[in-house]
Design a protein that fits this description.
The complex is a heterodimer of chains A (234) and B (285). Chain A is globular, with a radius of gyration of 17 Å. Chain A is 22% helix and 35% strand. Chain A has five helices and 16 strands. In chain A, a hairpin with a 2-residue loop joins β3 (75-84) and β4 (87-92). Chain A has helices at residues 2-18, 40-43, 50-58, 127-130, 159-175, and strands at residues 23-25, 63-72, 75-84, 87-92, 94-96, 101-103, 109-111, 114-118, 139-144, 178-183, 185-188, 191-194, 198-200, 206-209, 218-223, 228-233. Chain B has one domain (3-211): 3-Layer(aba) Sandwich (Rossmann fold), CATH 3.40.50.620. Chain B has helices spanning 20-36, 50-63, 80-93, 103-108, 119-141, 151-155, 177-187, 191-195, 208-212, 216-228, 233-238, 243-255, and strands at 41-45, 68-72, 96-99, 143-145. In chain B, strands 3-2-1-4 form a four-stranded parallel beta sheet, sandwiched between helices. In chain B, α3 (80-93) links the parallel β2 (68-72) and β3. In chain B, α1 (20-36) packs across α2 (50-63), α2 (50-63) packs parallel to α3 and α2 (50-63) crosses α7. Chain B is globular. The relative contact order of chain B is 0.15. Classes of the chains: A alpha+beta (234), B mainly alpha (285). Chains A and B meet through β11 of A and α1 and α7 of B.
Chain lengths: 234, 285
């Protein structure tokens, strides 16, 4: 499973390089899958593995945001990482337990695009994120695996879709930062990951959004100095 | 609020707008789950009722009309209008149908010929015969059985274990019956199918609500309040629901829990299937 996902991800990275992109973001759990249950050892990516080296090598040509399952001693972590110039610049860890993933506190870090913060969906309502001191942050990247849930009594609204959009918007306004939210698409064990990845400007306005339940990729030209955008769907 | 104060579903009051998000999820679910296992077709047991009609409409949108097979399986004592309504659904959708009279199969089992066979026992046997026929057709047609069970009947245990509840995927399993009615109207299911009293049609004059002892509108309000709003039975009673109805529903849910889980396994190892050994359903895809 992981090998097929890894090959597909490498293909996307190589396409990104050919298209001249500087940064490529994958949704959370795109590599490992969401429902891990008894598969921890099967989907684990050790940091001294060949796969990890391949990703680091590719990051010399394009910065990469990708999630993976890692192990430290007896603990497993669902982590998201930022790779650039052949190095791992940051890893945001979430302790994986039987029932949930508990995010650790995280910090902004410096990249070639300025100060970046890497958050997962669980961080968006975490007080440590919301009440974080207001540093200058140029870009917040949210690799996500958010599924549709929370239908109302009449069956007309799905709350998680709206909640995801609102939380990203609030984050953008709170930190006056560009937000790149990349969400998974497709079904896994009945959970419907709805996609609808989007990019917001520093005022929380959606600049570009992909359709719900539609697998797609888009290239966005972001001028970080003027904070202007030009979207180019592929 | 009591049983009598809740009227039967009023077609005019059943909304037709909205539900686009739910439809989108369910159509994508059927499409993804059938195709990821290498299948193209969906096989649906068409009873003539609203649940199977909604499943069929969604599956046609997900897989295309050429990839849906409607299987009609009347018993000689079935209400003739059930078969007519099943045919109406198939005709409106333009799907392939297979008609199998299950009477000879049911009666080939000599126990079912005996006088005085309890109707629950006969009904369960019929439901399991239908399941066996559906799964055989799914093998022949190389398709997956798309279920038709809704959340209300699942929670109330109003299903036959390994009978009507058996399926490969179940798009309606997280929708209450009243939500299925709304979805039915939104999808264009014929009015007469939405309006008729829901029935498993296992014997003449059988209705779901008669057997359950509570109507679906009231049952759904109680279930929604218990599980989606996380209210306690006592809080529901304080809000005006009759205590007898609330406790009857809670008791029914508890007593039928065994129908909603896999058969229990005696644990003797350190890695028991379903406990420590818990793999995702989609592992093999």
């Amino acid at each position: 499973m992981v090998n097929e996902n890894f090959e597909r991800i490498l293909g996307e990275i190589d396409d990104g390089i050919k298209l001249g992109a500087d940064l490529i973001c994958f949704p959370d759990t795109a590599l490992s899958g969401w429902e891990l249950s008894s598969l921890l050892k099967e989907v684990l990516i050790e940091k001294d593995s060949e796969k990890w080296e391949v990703l680091k090598s590719r990051s010399k040509r394009i910065s990469i945001v990708i999630g993976f399952l890692e192990r430290e001693k007896d603990n497993y972590f669902k982590s998201v990482s930022y790779l650039e110039d052949g190095k791992v610049l940051y890893i945001h860890k979430r302790l994986f337990t039987d029932h949930e993933s508990i995010p650790e506190d995280n910090k902004e870090f410096h990249t070639k695009f300025g100060n970046v913060m890497l958050l997962t969906y669980a961080d968006l309502t975490d007080p440590r994120t919301v009440f974080k001191s207001k540093e200058h942050i140029d870009m917040i990247i949210v690799p996500s695996a958010v599924y549709a849930e929370g239908m109302d009594e009449l069956g007309e609204n799905i709350s998680s879709v709206e909640k995801f959009k609102l939380l990203c918007k609030a984050l953008s306004i709170r930190f006056h930062s560009i937000v790149i939210a990349v969400n998974r698409v497709g079904f896994e064990d009945g959970y419907g990951f709805f996609g609808a990845s989007s990019v917001m400007n520093s005022e929380g306005r959606v600049i570009y959004s992909l359709q719900k339940f539609s697998q797609a990729r888009a290239i966005l030209h972001i001028d970080l100095d003027s904070r202007s955008f030009k979207a180019e769907p592929l | 609020m009591n049983f009598e104060s809740c009227n039967r579903v009023n077609y005019q009051k059943v909304g037709g707008k909205g539900l686009e998000s739910v439809k989108e999820i369910l159509i994508n679910f059927i499409s993804d789950e059938v195709r990821k296992f290498g299948f193209k077709k969906g096989i649906i047991g068409l009873s003539g009722g609203v649940d199977s009609a909604v499943s069929a409409y969604l599956t046609v949108e997900a897989l295309g009309v050429e990839n849906v097979v409607g299987v009609m399986m009347p018993y000689r004592a079935s209400n003739p209008t059930s078969l007519e309504d099943a045919k109406l659904v198939a005709k409106n959708l333009g799907i392939k149908t297979i008609l199998i009279d299950i009477s000879p199969m049911v009666e080939a089992y000599s126990e079912m010929k005996e006088k005085g066979v309890d109707r629950i026992r006969r009904g369960n046997f019929m439901a399991r015969i239908r399941m066996a026929v559906l799964y055989d057709i799914s093998c022949k047609e190389k398709g997956l059985v798309v279920g038709t069970g809704n959340k209300t009947e699942t929670l109330l245990g109003y299903t036959t274990l390994y009978g009507d509840s058996a399926c490969a995927i179940n798009p309606l399993g997280d929708l209450y019956k009243t939500q299925v009615w709304r979805l039915a109207k939104s999808l264009g299911v014929p009015k007469r199918i939405i309006e008729k009293p829901p029935s498993a049609d296992l014997w003449a004059g059988q209705t779901d609500e008669g057997e359950l002892g509570v109507n679906y509108i009231l049952a759904d309000k109680v279930l929604y309040s218990l599980f989606e709003l996380n209210l306690t039975p006592e809080e529901l009673i304080l809000r005006g629901y009759e205590a007898d109805i609330v406790y009857k529903i809670v008791d029914t849910i508890r007593k039928t829990q065994y129908k909603r889980v896999e058969p229990i396994i005696a644990k003797v190892s350190t890695a028991t299937v379903g406990k420590e050994l818990s793999f995702p359903r989609d592992w093999g895809t």
